[in-house]
Design a protein that fits this description.
Largest sheet: 8 strands, mixed
Structural class: alpha+beta
Number of helices: 9
CATH class of the largest domain: Mainly Beta
Number of strands: 16
Helix content: 25-40%
Strand content: 25-35%
Shape: elongated
Radius of gyration: 25 Å
CATH architecture of the largest domain: Roll
Number of domains: 2
């Protein structure tokens, strides 16, 4: 039994029931394991103890908790760079092979609540920021199967969204200001460029409505993904999908064109366009045209499009 003294473990039986509350220090005195951190394999007893703080985690894009699939999803350890299946992460995946029970606790310090015993079922990858609101990186998310406690309804914002998302593509109101970062990096304040993008979308939407066009957005959940994609604007009457950018730079144009290609795998719009705050230089218009996409920008009291036939009444 790896790192565990089997003679000693026979004398220390697990006596906590799901829902029990205990001081974390007392827990480790009795059962061993790390006194800090989220994942604590014990050298004293055959247990791997993992700790989660859903409220604090959700602010940083970690949605630990019950999901609609009936499993408890738990984000792995590793604060910087892509997470790897090493150390504590490996101890979760390998807990059965090593003869250890997997114990989940809610809370990270002080008093913690025992959720119950679980078994590793599977794992997948998601995006989340580094500690300290750093750049996005790959994180490991474990799917844990409950053994002695019933599955519960999702409690996190993401869990509730996934429970309500019945189709791959769902239409949502244009006024819902959710973005992909709402679910991937929710703690970060929007950049000025993002605020400009939001204003661009709302202004153009209001303009289209005065011309009699309907407008909406789509929330997309690709198969196997757990973070939604959100389009900026869709005009059903024109079958036109739009991505907005707050400034007219080559980097932004490249990003917008790629995003439209990604979204349109699911939306299947006939036309696609990038909405920007001013007329782009000729080479960027040619770039969009080469990708089969158009560019729209404000001009006077209306809007101009690089494809003159795309907005017939604008």
């Amino acid at each position: 039994m790896s790192e565990v003294d089997s003679a000693e473990t026979e004398a220390i039986e697990w006596d906590l029931e799901p829902g029990a509350v205990i001081e974390r220090k007392q827990l480790h005195v009795k059962y061993g394991g790390r006194t800090q951190g989220g994942i604590g394999p014990s050298a004293k007893t055959p247990n791997v103890m993992i700790f989660t703080d859903p409220i604090a985690g959700e602010k940083h894009g970690y949605y630990d908790g019950w999901m609609p699939d009936g499993f408890f999803h738990y984000s792995g350890e590793g604060q910087y760079g892509d997470q790897r299946m090493l150390s504590g992460n490996a101890s979760i995946r390998n807990h059965e092979a090593e003869g250890r029970a997997l114990r989940v606790f809610e809370g990270a310090r002080g008093k913690v609540r025992y959720v119950g015993q679980f078994a590793f079922e599977d794992w997948y990858e998601a995006d989340a920021p580094e500690t300290g609101d750093g750049p996005l990186r790959k994180v490991i998310v474990f799917k844990l199967r409950p053994l002695d406690t019933p599955a519960k309804h999702p409690g996190t914002k993401l869990g509730r969204l996934l429970a309500d998302q019945r189709e791959t593509v769902t239409e949502i109101d244009i006024e819902r200001l959710e973005t992909e970062k709402t679910f991937v990096d929710p703690n970060r304040e929007p950049y000025e460029a993002e605020r400009r993008e939001s204003k661009l979308v709302l202004d153009f939407s209001a303009y289209l409505r005065t011309k009699g066009y309907r407008v909406n957005r789509q929330r997309i959940l690709p198969e196997g993904e757990t973070r939604p994609l959100l389009t900026d604007l869709y005009v059903p009457d024109l079958d036109l999908l739009i991505e907005a950018k707050g400034s007219v730079t080559r980097e932004n144009m490249r990003m917008a064109l790629g995003q439209l290609i990604d979204y349109n795998r699911f939306v299947r719009a006939k036309y696609r366009a990038v909405l920007v705050p001013s007329k782009p230089r000729p080479d960027l218009i040619e770039l969009a045209d080469s990708a089969g996409q158009a560019i729209i920008w404000p001009q006077g009291n209306g809007y101009k499009c690089s494809d003159a036939d795309l907005l017939p009444h604008a």
